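LAB NOTEBOOK - FOLDING QUEUE
OPERATOR: T.R.
BATCH SIZE: 2
PURPOSE: Compare the predicted structure-token outputs for two unrelated chains run back to back under identical settings.
PRIORITY: normal
REVIEWER: second-year student, initials M.K.

ITEM 1
FIELD SEQUENCE / FIELD STRUCTURE:
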Amino acid sequence: MTESEELMNKYGEPLRYDRNFKGPRQRDRSCTDVPCLLLFVLFLAGWGFIAHYAITHGDLNKLMVPTDSFNQKCGIDSPVLHKKNLFFFNLEQCIDPLVPITGCPTPQVCVESCPTQTFIWDTMHDSLSYEELRSRLICLTDEHKAKIRSKADMQRAIDQNLCARWYIKSAPFLNRCLFEFSPQMCEFIPSFLLKGGRSRRQLMLPGNATSEPELQAQAMALSMSQALVLPQSNGRLEPVEEEPAVQCRRRLNDAVIKEKMKQTDTRLAKMVGNLVAHFYNGTHDAQRLGEEIVEDLVNSWSIILVACFCTLIASLVFIALMRWLSAPILWFSIFGVLTGLLVAIYYTVRQYIFWEKTPTVPIHGLNLQSTVKNVLQNQKTWLYLSIFVGVCFVVILLLVIVLRKRIRIAIALTKEGSKAVSSVFSTVFFPIFSWVLFIAAIAFAIGVGLYLGSIGQLSFRMVQRLNEAGEVTKERCVCEGPAINYTVGSACDPQLFEKHCYNPEASTTGFFQQSQRVACSQTTCSFLDIDNPPLIKWAIFYNIFGFLWLSFFISAFSDMVLAATFASWYWTFKKRDVPYFTLARAFGQTAFYHLGTLAFGSLILAVVRLIRLVLEYINEKLKKYDNAVTRAILCCMRCFFWLLETFLKFLNRNAYIMCAIHGKSFCTSAKDAFNLIMRNFLRVITLDQVTDFLFFISKLLLTAGAGVATYYFLANNPAIVQLHHRAVPTTVVVIAAFLITSVFFGVYSTAVDTLFLCFLEDCERNDGTPEKPFFMSKQLMKILGKKNKLPPRQRRSK
């Protein structure tokens, strides 16, 4: 058997010259890994059934039950069994982006119904009677309210933050009392706030109020009155000349929507200010800085959009220019690194000689600064640094000398990738499709998980509260009747606990010597969790695995579509003959023939990722057991599966590329890709490192260019937009530019990886004869010292 026949049997392709040849197995394809596709479809059908069951039988209200400051579930725990709504003492303190992490700092209590009237202690304590004030008072507990006997007691409780100083007519939203504006509120707004021209910041100055309560009341009242003023031509809000009550009633209902839109900036400024306050000294300065940041963002949004659009265009132009710029950028970077290492060697050797000839006494201090100075004044430190830097210089220099030819191949392939991306321009925007699918998968998995988590019976436990010192209270709580077996730490029912459990030491004796039971105040029947049935727990596990499998499948689909697109470009002998709608054809080819292969590869990754999640769960559970052997075993297993997942991601990516080229099954494609890579190991390592470094330099260059251009444009054109801090829009532009460039160079990286495997296939499959011509570019053939021989007809016509 001849060599040609062996190659033909090996690859199953005709070896005659054909200018219409589109690459290995591009025209003759069949469905691959069909059993895996059927398994994936059945799995998705089962996932859909679980989602339908979860939505039908689940109740998200169980998960949305609010919790008060005493860790009691409103309407569920025994002390607040009939109080389903949550009331906030000061709702403004909850406007903070860190609230989901740190919680809202204001006191929160469960109430039977949200307040239907407005209450402002600083403006009402003289006008209303004691009985009416007491009826409107909302305190932390009923015990605190029961101790109030006079207005002085009210003032004391309010000053101690045991009762709310003010609140506004509210309405329940998800069982949480939120502000509800109404015309009756106008009666409580002081007229001087409507007629005076002072701003909120002026009112918040210490010189304009005599006490902190007055400051809060004025600020709150002013925030309510901001909807009542008319906008003037200069953009400022000025009060109109009419009676406050008439003005209030006339303007409140008409301007409520407009005012809420205006308040958006204020609330956003407050959120940013609260976030800055965690890292900035001074709450007042932080709030002012937050307002300035939001104002700068609002004023410069058009500049930010233009900068992002320019970054997008610059990324496309840069990718197109990489066919000429990749070599200068890379070689300049390599020589820059070598030059920097030489400078570092000179500096470290000089420092070593200096400190060797300069005897010093160590600084006898226990602080960090003294330790650093001692290290820097030690000649051995500079000796070790000079040796380390010298070794790095020698290693990098030798690598560049030995791998110079392979570096030239990597640069040439980078140029080919630029040509491919420029030829099939639609690939740049294909990641948007993947993002949409990812977002849909995340939303579906989270929704199903929440509904599944809400299925089951509520479980309660009898517990004792902690006092202010963090110690367990010693209240004696006796249970009788159906609750006679209730003990601290055991399961309980809140309704039975409320009826049959009491504190005998706090009971009182009436006129006829009959004991009046007093409910337990420090011992409660509290919500523990939702007890999911075993089948629901398995359904939750199914949902987690489904999300992993689907997310890896979406990523694999995107990789194979792009790989098929760039493979078609490479295996087109004359690149100008690349067919139109190449991306659409690759999309259809992947969807019709290779979904099973994607399901197989993504299943393997999903299983490995699930094992890693299980190991993390076990590690969290075993943290309380201080066992060095267990920790060592878990650490080794976590490291092993992390390495395994990283290797499988690399192997799967190349397997998808081989499948896009040859149209074979996943296992065959993975085996061919692995063998091909192992036969060209040095080329693979060189290309991977060179392209990663080149893409990093390119993204850094574009991002820095966008930031610098934006900053200097704002600095040199102050008349276009006036800002407090030019760094605010510049920072936003830098972040957006990095994300944009990451997307573009992600596609570029896929193109280079695909063309690299095609190049290796081309080198092993073809020899440049008319029967087996090379498909690589002339530059690559020049680097390898190869060329194509023209067929006899073309040679004679030439």
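ITEM 2
FIELD SEQUENCE / FIELD STRUCTURE:
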Amino acid sequence: MPQKPIAYDVPTPELRAATAESIQAEILARLIYSIGKDPIVARPHDWLAATIMTVRDHVMDRWMESSRETWRTSHKRVYYLSLEFLIGRLMRDAMSNVGLMEPVREALKNLNVDLGDLINLEPDAALGNGGLGRLAACFLESMSTLKIPAYGYGIRYVHGLFRQEMSEGWQVELPEEWLAHGNPWEFERRESAYEVGFGGHVESVTDPDGEVRQEWRPNDHLMAVAFDTPIVGWRGARVNTLRLWSAQPIDPILLDKFNAGDHIGALEESAKAEAITRVLYPADSTAAGQELRLRQEFFFSSASLQDIVRRHLQQYGDLGSLADKVAVQLNDTHPAISIAELMRILVDENGLKWDEAWKLTKGTFGYTNHTLLPEALESWPVFLLERLLPRHMQIVYQINADVLADARDRANFSDAQIANVSLIDEAGGRRVRMGQLAFVGSHSINGVSALHTQLMKQTVFSDLHKLYPDRINNKTNGITPRRWLMQCNPGLTQLIADTIGPAFLDDIDRLKDLDGFAEDAGFQARFAQVKLENKRKLAQLIQDRLGIKVSPDAMFDVQIKRIHEYKRQLLNIIHAVAMYDEIRAHPERDWVPRVKIFAGKAAPGYWNAKLIIKLINDVAKVINNDPAVRGLLKVVFLPNYNVSLAEVIVPAADLSEQISTAGMEASGTGNMKFMANGAITIGTMDGANVEMHEEVGADNIVIFGMTAQEVEDMRAERTTPKQMIDASPRLHEVLETIATGVFSPDDPDRYRDLIGGLYEHDWFMVTRDFDAYAKAQNEVDAIWRDKTQWNAMAIRNTARVGFFSSDRTIGQYAQDIWGVTVPSR
């Protein structure tokens, strides 16, 4: 029976009243009728759920009207595919963006409930790990703010990455139980469920007209079920959707096995399905782990594309207009299998000719590259793809044949160049290069900072760039100022509004008006007071969680990010040891009190990263308990780094450590968050630091170390790291101290191999940049002693952060890649 046409001209209900009195009544109604609790006995989690549901109700009308408006106008839709969406807590974000913060605060106060307590009680959504996921979250919020019709597509992880705890200084991975008590923000969409297949075989089928087509017949199936979360733009401009897929078995229990006594085997299908959406980044060091990760990536890519094609056909009836009405952005290589999957859907399921389907596919997809690290540019063994996705492997071979023919016939490529652009890596075992697949299947390939984009052209995609020279472009990353200034730092936001007016809330570029107050003594004093209050809050958190007392008057020197050797937390902690030695050797000097604060997770299988966490904690244990230091230096590692913890740390930071090996950090977004909140950056000329240097000016950032070209040249030289170390007595002494077990008396050899690696190869240039880093830190100390200079630099960092708004980034994506018109705000 045909479906009745949907009437998208249904009148939109009037927005609900938003007074404290009306909100109070709504919260009480939700508490009683949705939660089932009498206010007299309600617990904090009951009040949290009732408040979220009340705020959600005020979002719903805007959400539905946003969807109706897109259908009415036939505006082009943007679909953002990402394996991570680190959205953090949503209640404060939604309240702030729809103007409910004060009415809700007052309503709860009348009910003897503190809004701040409820905000801190909401769990972080465990949907990501680091910058990739936080960027995706910022982008979704900016798309809503700029009124761009958009969906985010990802996976509804039950446990996410992991909850990080410390056991004697070692990282311990535990399940992140964020969904244990449900998620009041999400809505299950049972009607949006798609079958996803794996394995099986491919058959050639001859149609009545004589055309031969390929038909994939999987032997393993599961269902992808959609769960939708509203993403609210600033001032409720638009509400877009984050659609997350949950894997569910087609047959939840095999009754024949159960009745035969195989009670565990009867649940095998459920276990296989649920494994796909249980954990972010399952370890791929084993064959089973590799297969699970590939299943995970195909699962969400296939479900998302089926949903996109279904929606397009529902509105437009045919696929010829797909590239005109749909823009799909691949966030890194994780969804790159989408290229082959869309070709399969177009050719096999909808009967399009290959050339037409390939034109539509390239016109639809854009690909954002986030790394130059070979290990992060995914590749999969050919035999794994042939077994798990046999039809997709056929499609990859056919795409590759066309690309290689183009390279030889049109571009006259050499054999070496052809090997470089091939989708199949023949060296050391045949593997499918997912970065290459994403590149050739997209009309746009963008880097995420000016330096990264230039290096991408010169390194990983050099020959593909020669073959398709018009595809690579730059879109420097950005952050949403709503969460990373207005919400996480209300004191600074209010001070800025009182000083230059509130216009910057809607146009972040207006922060430039703050420049004129950088040298103003009165403003500096108020600015410093806001920073001090934020530091007191962080100091209290450190004491509550770790039992370590730190002084808010000390410099808060912060490095918070994923633990990786190229990010060089090791350089930072080696410098801490050098400072420790000098403070003890020269107690008579005028030392700047400093608290070195670390946070971040190490991948479960990344031994050196986990060893660096242990080293930080071992060094902290010694330094923090040595009376000879007199509290002048403290080292702190805060476990279980997430968005909510960052929202406390970032506003309190004085010094932002952005010290990656030059040429290895694609962009960074933490650097932008610190800049917005008045921290001074010490960093290398890497990633977006280069553009920060341009925006803030050389006098307001502390740059040190080798450039990307110098790093490349140094790696090519024969000078050994040992020669460099021996030439730096200070560094040599510190490394020997660590290597010989001074900080690990229970296991003197614990760090021998870690430090030995610095002597042998030092790929990440820790030792080669150490002296420059130490000199730069001395410069930081000198600036800190001159509070007028320090405050002026900090203020200028906040004033000049406007370029790094994700609104600017998304506006450029819309214009240059997606072909979407951004409505006036």
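REVIEWER COMMENT (ITEM 2): The chain is about 50% helix and 15% strand.
FOLLOW-UP: none requested
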